Amino acid sequence: MSGYKFKERTAILLDDINLMTQADPKLLANIRVVLTRTSHPGNIGAAARAMKTMGLSRLYLVEPAVFPNSQADAMAAGSTDLLAQATVCATLAEALADTTLALGVSARRRDIVAEVLTPPEASTRLLTEAQAGPVALVFGNETSGLSNEELSLCQGLVTIAANPDYSSLNLAAAVQVLSYEVRQAWLGHASWPQPEMDAATGDEMEKFYGHLETTLAELEFLNPGSPGKLMLKLRRLFARTRLAKEEVNILRGILTAAQESQQRANRARNPGAE
Ligand code: SAH
User: Fold this and answer.
1) Dist. CA 107 → ligand 1 center (Å)
2) pLDDT 10s digits, 49-73
3) What is the CATH code of the structural domain delimited by 202-269?
4) Contact, 127 vs 182, CB < 8 A?
5) Regarding predicted confidence, which is higher, 7 or 109?
6) Which CATH superfamily is domain 25-187 in?
7) pTM value?
8) Which CA distances in Å does 54 have to 27, 187, 241?
9) Residue identifier of the C-alpha nearest atom 21 of ligand 1
10) 47 CB less than 6 Å from ligand 1?
11) 139 lines ligand 1 (CB under 6 A)
């Protein structure tokens, strides 16, 4: 009997917490979970369940090994609606095209992303930026985690401070931890400060990198035949900074000016050629 009463009391408390909050549901709708190159479909289902229990709904799958799949449906239980609405993408860049902030979730600290955040810090950042548009948490493959290329598309890294002797959580468990932290931060704030800047989207950054690569090739700074790691290093540099839309426009203006100047120099060298 007393056990029943305790349960009832807990339920009332949880209801109170959910009613008390003035938190805006649109913010959770703007936070997407991106799973890259997931091997086990069961993990996709379990991740959907983890998300739905915390009020997240936007699932993006980049190159899943197997999807849709009955094991994913079974592990999703009551969250198969998230699987049905999931967006499947060929590349991570596609999944992040309209986002202004992408945080990679990884147990391993890497040089490639300068800023390492705790899950509560990441939640604050995501919810602040989610006021302006879509933002993403990016999770890696079960065996290999996030590649350097994948991390180079993220502006920060989130690490769950686990047992240093055994720090690798199951993928869906990691999704649960981050989803929980996002929800706690969301419940705790009726309002958020405005985002610091009008940040460029993933797509605008990709177009900038394309323009940068073409220009560097035209200037013969980069050999298109053997580009090496230059573009990856430059991506890392800009990911550290996080650019505003206006700054991307200025940089692209500089690139265009450099291209035009190079073309004028080429014409002056070969006046006959057209
Ligand atoms: N062997 C892989 C671990 C993959 S676990 C590696 O070393 O990177 C699958 C995914 O779960 C990871 O890519 C990451 O997104 C998440 N994950 C697991 N444990 C984590 C931790 N302690 N901190 C942050 N993310 C973690």
Assistant:
1) 5
2) 999 999 999 999 999 999 999 999 9
3) 1.10.8.590
4) yes
5) 109
6) SPOUT methyltransferase, trefoil knot domain (3.40.1280.10)
7) 0.89
8) 13, 11, 31
9) 107
10) no
11) yes
